[in-house]
Amino acid sequence: MPHGPDNAEPPTATAGNREPERKKKWYRTKTFNLAIGLAVTIGCLWLAVRMMAAGRPIGEVLREIADSFSRADYRSLLPIWVILYIFYGIKAWRWKMLLAPLGEFRTSSLFPPVMIGFAFNNLLPAHLGEFVRVFVFSRQQRQPVSAVLTSVILERVLDAIAILAFLGLGLFLMPGVDDPRVRKAMLIVAAGICVALAGAAVYLIWTKPFVTAFEWCLGRVPLLPGGLKQKLAAMLEQGAHGLASLKDSRLWAGLVFTSFLQWSLNVLVIHLSLWSFGIHVSPLVSCIVMGVTAFGVTVPASPGYFGVIQVCFLAVLQFFTKDTVAIGAASLFYQMAQWIPVTATGLYFFVRTGFHVAQVTEEAEEAAANPDDPATE
Questions:
Q1: Which end of the chain has fewer CB atoms at under 10 Å, N or C?
Q2: Comparing 229-238, 304-313, 350-359, which segment has the lowest mean pLDDT?
Q3: Is there a contact between 145 and 374 (Cβ–Cβ < 8 Å)?
Q4: Are the C-beta atoms of residues 84 and 342 closer than 8 Å to each other?
């Protein structure tokens, strides 16, 4: 058989050929995430203003918000900041335990990547800060991206369990709800939370059978996009791989303890923020606010979660006080009391790494789009 240029096999795609296509994919994803996030933020801000205005002019509402800030008690600010850094210190400590299969790391070496990740969460859409955290730690400690990413997935599972537990506790035990329809709805949601917690327990204890059953059920959901099904299944499988390496009962006790401890601190920050604006409610109400807000900020939104947090606070607290303007002001105080120090601290640590913003954001977007791609190792 003759050989020559006319009979040559077509060239296969090389990494160089794929690079422009990957960049196009990053930009398309970034543009889409920004568009969705902005739409959600604008919609939530509009809804929050409507809930506070109750038919009044917007200018009047803004003046009342400014007046609420002028009358607020700022003695809570220092305790909030102390609690905030303890919260992130505990998060770094728990991450150390989750990374135990990869080696022994100091909590002090994990605190900077944690703060960097949350700073970028405040500045980038689609929660890309988590992937920035993974990238920074992986490069600094020379660890595989996929293994570190697995630890972050497990971290999210533990967070969800603790948040659901606090939310369920608040809904079950919350006194002072006079409307029987509201009380019934709260109990239904609390019962659903109990089912979710039972599912999480099954996932943690009987991981492989749970993943198999979940993937079987997922494959029979007709309207769910195939790409989303694959990502959900991949996340569960990655988590299962990580769980298999965490067999020490003392380690598990530490993980559960730190998860509940850090979210109890978040409840305390919310309670102090409400107190600062004269909103005196049961700590159980603060548990509900924390749970609703923690899950609310998981929706796609523009960086900083502006609007989303305000709607979450208003949605819960309107049943316990009629002063919706004070609620909105307290939610802004709670948000900015965290956003400013966390972002400033994270950016300080990031500057010290020597990495460039464009470099880490591009790597984070690639890891988010292709978490199992060997190229991200």
A1: N
A2: 229-238
A3: no
A4: yes
